[in-house]
Specification:
By secondary structure, the chain is α/β, with parallel strands linked by helices. It folds into 2 domains: about 1-60 and about 355-405, Roll (Urease, subunit C, domain 1); about 60-340, Metal-dependent hydrolases (TIM Barrel), CATH 3.20.20. It has helices at about 65-70, 75, 85-100, 100-120, 160-170, 185-200, 210-220, 225-230, 250-260, 265-275, 280-285, 300-315, 320-340, 375-380, 410-425; strands at about 1-10, 15-25, 30-35, 45-50, 55, 60-65, 120-130, 145-155, 175-180, 200-205, 240, 260-265, 290, 355-360, 385-395, 395-400, 405. Strands 1, 2, 3, 4, 5, 14, 15, 16 and 17 form a 9-stranded mixed sheet that branches. It has an 8-stranded parallel sheet with strand order 6-7-8-9-10-11-12-13, with helices on both faces.
Length: about 425
């Protein structure tokens, strides 16, 4: 396969190549041809003319809770008086029951996969409640047209039972777990977490509202959560904090010194929790931050817009700094974060790289970038001047001209109706 006449974002910050041709063989990019070097030696391959198209490394989503979006749980709990953590715990309890239905779970995954593809995603980490009937967790689900890694969510407010610990340690397909309610862990649970990380795996900690979880920790253990985390010596470079709402300066300092990484989901925080305007404080401490779609939908472009707007309203940084911030978080850190989950390097368009690509259509012809932050420019234009045209995953076309190739629209509507009906019938 050859994609010719591309406006190409290579994955190197600020680098744009006009009139490039990408040569794909199998699941790899085998050659990158610029206008000054012909590609006649590859003339026998199927060729797509990308005139007016922007091609970039396939978008990677390091954190998505797809089941919450698909089941309409946010809308049903949006106006509840429950505190943020209690709301998340209630959602988890409901979802755990739903996920015991294996067939239904597979339908949820399929819908999430295809909606992710529609939004230009080629790889994603999906947080799923621990369930008896979870399918085999494969590192790549190319039958769905997208690379998927599952991160089992554990409601840990009452500790983690031994059987589950043994199962998680024995499953080599699991590269990470996600903890909700870390304040409830006992000493032996921390021993398990250290063993889990020693096997090269990662831990994601949902910090929905640190102030609330700190109070719960005091009630259960007689100690604040910060003190426990320090004493247990659990924090390391193998931990990602998700959301990180209401964390103070002391906790920021601790995270920074331990090499902790953060995954922010701005729209989820603003909608369901309460957004903490601390990204610049965190970046100033040298912390790495990635952006996930969280509980809302599957659009990293919309997350980028939300980040831009929230930081602009914060008023602490110049526009150029904010633009560079978005470029760094999504265009660099996202690929690093999720690449570690899959055990491969993502985010580059170069010979030898995985053939994971997002194709965008610029409605008025060839796009000429005006800044050295091209991703940010695109993010602000998606939905207006730019739309998502196609996705290529592992050298295979998953979506083209806005159409999913693995499933027709009639079947998608049927599955969506089944999901909606079950959701309505179930108490939250």
């Amino acid at each position: 396969m050859i994609l010719k006449n591309c406006t190409l974002l290579t994955g190197n910050i600020g680098e744009v190549i006009q009139d490039a041709s990408i040569v794909i063989k199998g699941d790899k990019i085998v050659d990158l041809v610029t206008s000054d070097r012909p590609f006649e030696k590859h003339a026998d391959k199927e060729t797509y003319d990308m005139q007016g198209k922007i091609v970039m490394p396939g978008l990677s989503n390091p954190y998505s809770s797809f089941y919450i979006s698909e089941l309409g749980l946010l809308n049903r709990l949006l106006n509840s008086d429950l505190p943020s953590y209690e709301k998340f715990s209630k959602i988890y309890g409901y979802s755990e029951k739903i996920f015991s239905n294996h067939d239904f779970f597979e339908k949820l995954v399929r819908m999430a996969a295809y909606k992710s593809i529609y939004n230009g995603l080629t790889s994603t980490v999906i947080a799923i409640p621990v369930s008896k009937n979870l399918p085999d967790m494969n590192s790549s689900s190319l039958d769905l047209g997208i690379k998927i890694k599952y991160s089992p969510v554990i409601l840990s407010e009452n500790g983690i039972n031994k059987a589950l610990k043994d199962e998680l340690l024995a499953n080599d397909d699991i590269s990470s777990i996600t903890l909700l309610g870390i304040w409830g862990l006992e000493n032996e649970d921390y021993d398990f977490l250290r063993t889990f990380m020693d096997k090269g795996k990662r831990i994601k900690i949902l910090m929905v509202d640190f102030n609330q979880e700190d109070r719960y920790s005091m009630l259960k253990h007689g100690k604040g959560l910060l003190e426990i985390l320090k004493n247990q010596n659990i924090l390391s470079k193998k931990i990602d904090i998700v959301f990180s709402v209401n964390i103070g300066q002391d906790l920021m300092d601790l995270f920074a010194t331990k090499g902790i990484r953060l995954i922010k989901s701005i729209r989820t925080e603003v909608t369901e929790i309460g957004f903490s305007k601390n990204i610049l404080d965190l970046l100033g401490r040298g912390m790495k931050i990635a952006i996930g779609t969280g509980l809302i939908d599957y659009s990293l472009f919309e997350e980028a817009k939300a980040l831009l707007i929230s930081e602009k309203l914060n008023g602490k940084a110049k526009q150029s700094i904010i633009y560079n911030e978005i470029e760094r978080t999504i265009f660099m850190n996202n690929y690093q974060f999720i690449g570690e989950e899959f055990g491969t390097q993502l985010g580059k368009v170069a010979a030898g790289a995985d053939a994971d690509l997002t194709v965008l259509n610029y409605k008025t012809g060839k796009y000429l970038f005006k800044t050295n932050t091209p991703f940010t420019e695109i993010a602000l234009k998606v939905g207006c001047d730019v739309d998502i045209y196609g996705t290529i995953v592992g050298g295979k076309v998953s979506m083209w001209e806005g159409k999913i190739l693995q499933m027709d629209q009639t079947e998608m509507i049927k599955i969506q109706n089944e999901i909606n009906n079950l959701s309505k019938e179930t108490e939250v």
